[in-house]
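Minutes, methods subgroup
Present: GH (chair), OT, SY

1. OT presented the first of two proteins processed in the latest run. Sequence and structure tokens recorded below as shown on screen.
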Amino acid sequence: MVWSVLERSLVLLLRGASRLLLALLSLAQSFGPRNVRPVPPAVRPLLLLSGVELARRIRQKQIKCVDVIQEYISRIRDVNPIINAVVAERFAAALKEAKEVDNRIAEGGEDVKSLEESVPYLGVPFTVKEAIALEGGEGCIIAAAGSVMGVGSDIGGSIRMPAFFNGIYGHKPTTGLVPNGGQFPNATGRKAEFLCTGPMCRYVEDLIPMLKVMAGPNISKVKLDEEVFIKKVKFYSMEHDGGSPFVSKVDSELIRAQRKLTEYLEVQFGVQVQQVQIHKMKYAFQIWSAMMVSPETDGKESRSFKELMADHGKEIRPLWELVKKILGLSPHTIPAIGLVITEDLAKANHQSNVKLMNMSRNLQNEFSNLLGDDGVFLYPSHPKIAPRHHHPKLMPFNFAYTAIFNVLGLPVTQCPLGLSKDGLPLGIQLVANHHNDHLCLRVAQHLECAFGGWRNPGAP
């Protein structure tokens, strides 16, 4: 695509502002307090079991639900002062519900098999994001063993990025597979086509049962119980987006981890991982932005992010807000300001917007033809290993690595790939074609044993 002088100037301005603020933040943090408290490892046995295993032991009366809930309440109280992930607790209600579960099982009116089929996670504690844009806390409390699993929503990567940063599993289902009803605020119009609700967990064996529960009757659209033979899967790998000026370069450790994965697949299973270069991925952020402001199906203009930021108040002037942000005077974040700028650009340059929407459709066809019903695409979950606190706000468009798959509607599993030299999580996106969720989920199961899956924080 050919950019106008204005577009290039704004990109350079945004990048310059981000780098300046990032440098100032890094400098300030270098002089800040160093007495950071590490999260203690989870050592209590009940905290180290998957949801599937906890549910099985509760059904078979090997453990009591009350004891499980009490263990997790204690764990949350231990780690939350450090990570500040749980913002709304309901401990008393959870204990009351746990007693009801224990009473139900003690009465013996239902056999173990019927309980497994009707309520597969009976008695298992889980967490749910309470407000918009807080899935970082969801991923954090799960990774800290303060929760078994969680429910996340994802319109640009809000399941997969927190899962990646925290070294856990997260699955963005095929668009429309899991209903989005009951969320607040819920997406409407075209944006509802990009929003997905899916599972987040520490143990890969929980992903498929969770997805079955969440999808309900829609689960018949996918083949989750179908066995997948890795030797018969066609793997494609792409190590970076091709050089978008909007996003950071992929960290070298992430590239090495992806290459280690491809080597493992080739040696262990005898498959040939094909390296591909999909040119349109370079425009992932622009495509996502254009699709987010595209007209509704009835032709009406969708509600803009600028309107949401204004919250019925004074209209936001994004360039002025950017200047204020550099001076530390704007209450808005760099990503929010950047999104409004790109929104305005998309609306001002209608011809470019139409080209990007066409590019999205072409890219969707390209992936569909590439993957078929037996292909898995390997792609970084994010260009950077988990950054320090506040740094993501100053690298505002790196979410393009996950966001592109929202507009394409493809199922994606974020899978941990061990730890970096600094002990931070590495990971990969496993992408399949529409309604082939079982492929990326089954591949993730194979990789848990090979790469270790979730790592207990602070454990040797």
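2. SY then presented the second protein from the same run.
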Amino acid sequence: MRDIYRKKTPDKWRNIEFNGLSITLTLIGINKLNLQGERVGFVCSPVIERIGNEIIFSIDNGDRFHLSCVAEVIVIDSIEPYLDQRWK
């Protein structure tokens, strides 16, 4: 993944040191929410799907963390570079 975002880095991020991305999402019209787990701060690949008129957003980290949300609308509020000191 590192090579992908280095090749397509926005000009305004060129002088910023980062090793991850911080993404802020707003989910509107939440119809179902399931959150189980105790650990945060892990690498994951969220899945966003549209089925009919609903958006399904899910994150799964085995049996340690699970989040699923069914909503009517999902809005990407921001995508920002982030320097995670644990991975530096």
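Chair's summary of item 2: Residues 1-5 have pLDDT under 50 and may be disordered.
Next meeting: continue with the remaining queue.
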